[in-house]
Amino acid sequence: MFNHHRTPSSSYKTVLPPQELLDDLCSRFVLNVPKEDLQSFERILFLVEYAHWYYEDNSVENNPSLKSLSLKEFTSLSVFNSCDVLKPYVAHIDDIFKDFTSYKVRVPVTGAIILDETFERCLLVKGWKGSSWSFPRGKKSKDEEDHACAVREVLEETGFDVSKLLNKNEFLEFNFGQQRVRLYIIAGVKDDTSFAPQTKKEISEIAWQRLDELQPSTDEVISRGITGLKLYMVSPFLASLKSWISSHQPPMAPRPDLPLKGICVWKAKHSSTGSSSTITDNQPTKSEPDPQPLDVGPGRSFRNFRFSTAPILQAMEASFS
């Protein structure tokens, strides 16, 4: 599927990226990595995904004629068609992507629950697509420590550095299917702190939301708070969070002067043509799907597939040289 946040004029963007551009992106994002990162389809597709983000966030925006591509289309056009050793696997791209999706939702996620000085509000971010809200968080990189991932992801999604406020022992953890999500509690952040994403097309809005307007998960309330906010990735943490708050003294007493509703502190701007753009000039980043169950259908045979890296590296280097 193509990105739905594109402008109406995107229907005229029908020119496929030239091979030179695809080769350049693959050289920059795929070839120049440690060889161990090219030992499975999953790792290769993670690298191709970085190249795809860059293509969508920079190449497509800078060239109005270029066609917006799905990750699957981009993968087929770039690495798999450019490298002779991988070309035979283009026919299996559906199975490979099913395994990749299954693999992604098992990668641990870390982030932060940012509380204001009264502990009455927490900071939530809304994804670029859809209307779901979540705490700022993201997937761990290879060999990355939990707290380091949390600092990196919060900085990317909100522009706020929590490194000096983070206590490695103060966190809440919940499992969504096979995915572990750990959120560090960052308490006592001033409500006038400036927030703005450092990434493109990942976050559309940042807001302080009142905790008393959010509801924990129950049989009846799974994904929405009192105000109608979609809280699938928030509500499972609320009971434990409110328990933590009840045992800790906030640095500031409740403030009746603040609005009773949530306070928006950053929102993406929209141009006169209807296209969306963030306020800051940022680096490419990702858009994550909601957690999904482990894929056990067609394609599972590829899950443990491994190949000899030497001939593939040699062929890829020859292709792009």
UniProtKB/TrEMBL annotation:
It comes from the Eukaryota. This is Uncharacterized protein. The lineage of its organism: Eukaryota, Viridiplantae, Streptophyta, Embryophyta, Tracheophyta.
